[in-house]
Amino acid sequence: MYTHVFDIKNAYIGLLRKGQHIYGHLGELSKENFDLILEHVEHVLAVEVPTKKARKKIFSVIIESLQNLHDYICDACALEGLTDVFVCINKDAHAYHIYTGNFLMRKDFNGVEARIKMVNSLTKNQLRELYRGILSYGEASESGGAGLGFIDLAKKSEEDLVYRCDKVDEKIAFFTLEIVVGE
Q1: Banded pLDDT at 140 (limits 50, 70, 90)
Q2: pLDDT of residue 21
Q3: Domain ranges of the chain
Q4: What pLDDT digit, counting tens, does each position of 98-136 carry?
């Protein structure tokens, strides 16, 4: 049996204890359950989030995050049976915290980290201009996207994107991202 140090369930449970937990999903992210997750999120947001503006922003972040999680499930991780992801929405006194987590190849982390550091270094106006520029002139990346995911999330986040990478083994890591959306 494949054994590794990182335990996704413990990471997820740790996040549930941060603030008031309002939604969570831990498990596979298939095409079949993608829409079901969105339906659950939409329902929870209607009940738990009082303003339409915050609901819309959180839902948009969730859609982008789920698309990223789905599109970037790595083949090598899948071969090892490491296909679970998590999505968690918590609330504190001032904002909503959306956490996502997925397995990735450790060799790919440096590129992910560089993109996050780049978007975190930009102002909201610079992010908008970069986003527009990529939409106008961008080409598809190796994964088929235009590279807008982290830019879009950073535009919607009240704070810098927060991330961490936990070693699973010599080849695989677990990546966690936090996006903060105001009320």
Answers
A1: very low
A2: 92
A3: 8-105+160-182
A4: 999 999 999 999 999 999 999 999 999 999 999 888 888
Cα distance between residue 102 and residue 96, in whole Å: 20
Q: Which amino acid is at 21?
A: H
* 82: nearest Cα among 103, 67, 64: 103
pLDDT digits 0-9 by tens, 1-12: 344 457 888 888
Question: For the domain 8-105+160-182, what is the CATH superfamily, name and number?
Answer: Histidine kinase-like ATPase, C-terminal domain (3.30.565.10)
Note whether 24 and 88 are within 8 A (CB).
yes
Cα–Cα distance between 49 and 39 in angstroms, integer? 15
